[in-house]
Design goal:
The chain is α/β, with parallel strands linked by helices. Helix content is 37%, strand content 23%. The protein has a single domain, classed as Aldolase class I (TIM Barrel), CATH 3.20.20.
């Protein structure tokens, strides 16, 4: 795997990182609350109360001024769980507004604006993340493999795959996929209660970072930040 980082944070499956989604209601207070526990902040812009670019830029500015760790900006597509029904042009405008200020841009692998967002990331020295979300089922293994091909074709440094797990067999399938591609630059999450163990143990297989929540879960099976930090500290002690 090529050396990967988000901002100043190096990424390695041997040193799992925690990302915490935050919103726009209390940037400084939220950063203060998660400091020392989270390695990355994901600003879920599609969940903001206001979505005009000026407001979004101001939230990013205040988040950075509060001493935030590296920031991932996400304007999630409604087809994959986004809250705000934004047109493609509106989403792209928000990504363009924040690209000079953040450390990574996360866009869906299947999104019509994927290539333009990844180009923005390259132009502003951000890390590009191409993500795929399947909330209804775990894709078959050949479908998972096709995601790698698509991410390679669009030159996405990181591929993130989040998929629902109804059984432990589903979790094992995503684990096998993670092990096979651990040198690619990969984040994998098995969604739901059955998949909760993936959030702690998939880093052992090479998943670069996991997600935890500060106030309310943004994904099925997401653990509270303090609980996740304690678990990773137990199973992956840091020097």
């Amino acid at each position: 795997m090529h050396d990967l980082s988000i901002g100043s944070l190096p990424l390695s499956g041997d040193a799992p990182r925690i990302a915490v989604p935050l919103f726009d209601d209390d940037p400084a207070g939220d950063v203060a609350a998660v400091r020392g526990l989270a390695d990355l902040i994901e600003l879920r812009i599609d969940c903001f109360a206001r979505l005009d670019p000026a407001h979004v830029v101001e939230v990013v500015r205040r988040t950075k001024e509060a001493g935030a760790p590296p920031i991932i900006a996400t304007v999630r597509w409604t087809a994959e769980g986004g809250k705000a029904p934004l047109a493609d042009a509106e989403r792209l405008a928000l990504y363009a507004a924040v690209a000079p200020m953040v450390d990574a841009l996360d866009v869906e692998l299947a999104s019509p604006i994927r290539d333009r967002v990844l180009a923005l990331a390259r132009a502003h020295a951000c890390t590009g993340i191409a993500s795929s979300h399947s909330f209804e089922r775990m894709p078959a293994f050949d479908e998972l493999e096709s995601l790698v091909d698509q991410a390679d074709e669009c030159h996405a440094p990181i591929l993130k795959v989040a998929a629902a797990a109804a059984t432990l067999a589903d979790v094992r399938r995503l684990l096998e996929f993670t092990l096979r591609h651990r040198d690619r630059g990969l984040v994998t999450i098995a969604l739901g209660q059955v998949g909760a163990l993936s959030r702690v143990f998939f880093p052992l297989a090479g998943s670069l970072f996991t997600f935890a929540h500060h106030r309310a879960a943004s994904g099925p099976g997401q653990l509270p930040l303090a609980e996740m930090h304690a678990a990773l500290g137990r199973y992956f002690p840091r020097a």
